[in-house]
Amino acid sequence: MEITKLKPKVKQGLVVVITGNGKGKTTSAMGMALRATGHNMKVEIIQFMKGDIYSGEWDGVKRLDGLVHLTPTGKGFCGIQGNPYPFSEHRQNAQDAVEMVKTVLKNNSCDMLILDEINNALQLKLVDLDQVLEILSLRPFDMHMVLTGRDAHPAILEAADTVSEVREIKHAYRKDIEPQPGIDY
Length: 185
Ligand code: ATP
Ligand code: MG
Fold this sequence. Notes:
By secondary structure, the chain is an alpha/beta fold. It has helices at about 25-35, 55-60, 85-105, 120-125, 130-135, 155-160, and strands at about 15-20, 45, 70, 110-115, 145-150, 160-165. The protein has a single domain (about 15-165), classed as P-loop containing nucleotide triphosphate hydrolases (Rossmann fold, 3-Layer(aba) Sandwich). Helix content is about 30%, strand content about 15%. A 6-stranded parallel beta sheet has the order 3-2-4-5-1-6, with helices on both faces. The protein binds adenosine-5'-triphosphate and magnesium ion.
């Protein structure tokens, strides 16, 4: 059987938002990154509010032939019990991440830019709405941008082309099952 390779008449970047309270937002974005590598696309992943707890994708992406580059920024969930870092530090980390994003956009250095947990960073006021809107406005026409995290701002939903909400039906944690590698991190 011959395999058809589709090609869009107009090649354009899309803004995709993955939000909601269920499990599968970050891993959905990682799935798009994996898919993009099959098209030889370069993927840049900048994770907001992550860096204190190891997650498999940090090294997993290194197995993808140098096509995917991932930078965790931050120190975990701000304001959640047990997180010892002050708001100012979380905010500074997120502000540094914004600068990193702007550099990627200015240099147009990837085909897909994934901003993992940026919705949470916005909700927690670690970044401002104006900053996220500016990031969206700086997106080159043919660059895909994926924004993840629960509680996506209505203005971000408005700006997006594709929005999916992951809704929790069940989560293992409710049965007191601890997070498992490969599934949860
Ligand atoms: P994943 O990274 O697995 O795709 P996610 O990005 O949708 O999850 P986050 O809010 O970023 O979800 O949380 C990441 C971690 O929290 C994962 O270990 C995930 O299993 C867990 N998690 C996700 N949704 C829930 C939930 N509704 N209740 C408890 N833990 C959750
Ligand atoms: Mg996530």
